[in-house]
Amino acid sequence: MFTGIVEELGQVKALSLRGNSGTLTVKAKKVLEGTKIGDSIAVNGVCLTVTNMKNNEFSADVMAETVRRSSLGALQDGSYVNLERAMAADGRFGGHIVSGHIDGTGQIESMRREENAVWVTIACADKILDLIVEKGSICIDGISLTVAAVTKRNFSVSVIPHTGEETTLLKKKAGDPVNLENDIVGKYIQKFVDIGRNSGADRGKMPDGENAAGNVKGNSGLSMEFLQKYGFGNIGWKAKIPSAKLIWNGFLRVTMKALNSYEKLLIKDSGKVGKYERAIQHNRRSDRRSAGGKDHSRDR
Q: What whole-number distance in Å separates Cα of residue 193 and Cα of residue 120?
């Protein structure tokens, strides 16, 4: 796991591809400190395994899937790349959770200076753009950045001078490709509720004929009997271990809040109350009853 805080600019010594796979060799210093064969280094956001090290350089195998998903195949000898070692268990979490598994590439549309910062606007595929939210996190070429704006066709980040100096982003130009990784939390929430948003009129619809108001025609995307019919927790072994139950319930409540926020966007101005909102209200009432009438709603 990485955090999107670039440690060093490396320089490509050689990219040897046979078909769509091969070996990448990068000149580096700092990221090799404490690194051994088999360790992971993110190269422009792509998690690669070190297979060889010598004389301030390392090599890694690059498979066809990596070349298809990322911009690594376009690197030239002498190209500069962003490097980061995998996060140590006792290290600082300076950026956000970055897996190093690229979702796809985007294309820089424009760069615009605003006082001490530079706005970078990037176009990308709908499947990536759908999971980008304003003031959320996005990993661009291995750099953890805050999303400053999102439209229906692109998104923008505002880059401070330090980030511009320490990474490759502001050395690029309009038309250049960049590697993109969505926030892993958003991807898992989407998977949990099975919101398969496609293009056009289908985008934003709930799965299996279920609409945002909770009129179910098929299976709900969130199951376990809709989290024990709104109780959320008390599921199996988790109910017998207080700490596990607390963590589990906390996670479920955060997830339900996220689903409720998304649902409200779908039924905006309709005057309806969505099924997740009803579930949250039901859960709060149940908690108050079990606590002898005490109102814990503000703890949600």
A: 32
How far, CA to CA in Å, does 146 sit from each of 78, 137, 239? 29, 5, 37
Distance CA 177, CA 43 (A): 14
Q: Is the dihedral of CA 53, 54, 55, 58 positive or negative?
A: negative
Q: Nearest 5°: phi and psi at 144?
A: -80, 120
Nearest of 254, 188, 265 to residue 221 by alpha carbon? 188
Q: What letter would DSSP give residue 88?
A: P
Please count the residues of the chain. Answer: 300
Backbone angle region of 191, left / alpha / beta, with phi > 0 → left and psi within -120 to 50 → alpha: alpha
pLDDT value at 287 more than 80: no
pLDDT digits (tens, 9 = 90+) for 97-135: 899 999 999 999 999 999 999 999 999 999 999 999 999
The C-alpha atoms of residue 245 and residue 228 are separated, in whole angstroms, by 14
Which residue, 190, 192, 196, 83, is CA-closest to 132?
190
- Label residue 187 by pLDDT band (50, 70, 90): confident
Say if residues 84 and 100 touch (Cβ distance below 8 Å). no
Q: How far apart are CA 273 and CA 257, in angstroms?
A: 14
Pull the structure tokens for residue 167: 């990474």
Count Cα atoms within 13 angstroms, Cβ side, for 46. Answer: 25
SS (H, E, C) 225-242: HHHHHCCCCCCHHHHHCH
- Do residues 141 and 42 make contact, with C-beta atoms less than 8 angstroms apart? no
Is the overall model pTM greater than 0.85, yes or no?
Answer: no
pLDDT tens figures, 144-173: 999 999 999 999 999 999 999 999 999 999
Please state, for a pLDDT cut of 70, what percent of the chain lies above it: 64
Asked if 40 contacts 47 with a C-beta cutoff of 8 angstroms, the reply is: yes
